[in-house]
Amino acid sequence: MENQQQDFAILDNNSTAEEFFLPHGHGKRIIAISVNDTQNSDDVVEWALANIIDKESDLVVLMNVRVTNRTADFAAIGGYAEDPLSIEREKECSHNTVKKYGVKMRQDGYNVKAYSLVGDAGPEIVKKATELNVDHLILGTRSLSGLKKIFLGSVSEYCSKHCKCAITIVKTH
């Protein structure tokens, strides 16, 4: 398993769809799943694999977005001042998150790519989904309270308004 984790490439904001077609291409659909390091994502991925994804032909694109500017989050969730160490830790956490799902899916026979993106989650997911011509976007919902939703926004709501592909929002407990 260690060797498979080292071979699992994680792409960034500047990567394009050309990576999908080299060296071996993919089947009929590109299915993107937004993941983070919560139980919610475990449930979303399980649901997507059981209900949407065709192992034999679909390409699964995992996306994790890490925020670079915490000043907007400070008042809402008690953010912190950024330093190079925290930025590197967030990058490592993001990479570990997509590796966790990607390596397991690859072991199970799925064709999978992973993106660790930087920026505001909603716009970055929509931008990458558009660039990659994603056929279906699957994401979870955090069930934020009204006040938190005002300060933090709803990624699923943003994506549902701005994405041009089919979207499934998986509500988990």
Automatic annotation (TrEMBL):
<feature type="domain" description="UspA">
    <location>
        <begin position="31"/>
        <end position="171"/>
    </location>
</feature>
<dbReference type="InterPro" id="IPR014729">
    <property type="entry name" value="Rossmann-like_a/b/a_fold"/>
</dbReference>
<dbReference type="InterPro" id="IPR006016">
    <property type="entry name" value="UspA"/>
</dbReference>
<dbReference type="InterPro" id="IPR006015">
    <property type="entry name" value="Universal_stress_UspA"/>
</dbReference>
<protein>
    <recommendedName>
        <fullName>UspA domain-containing protein</fullName>
    </recommendedName>
</protein>
<dbReference type="Pfam" id="PF00582">
    <property type="entry name" value="Usp"/>
</dbReference>
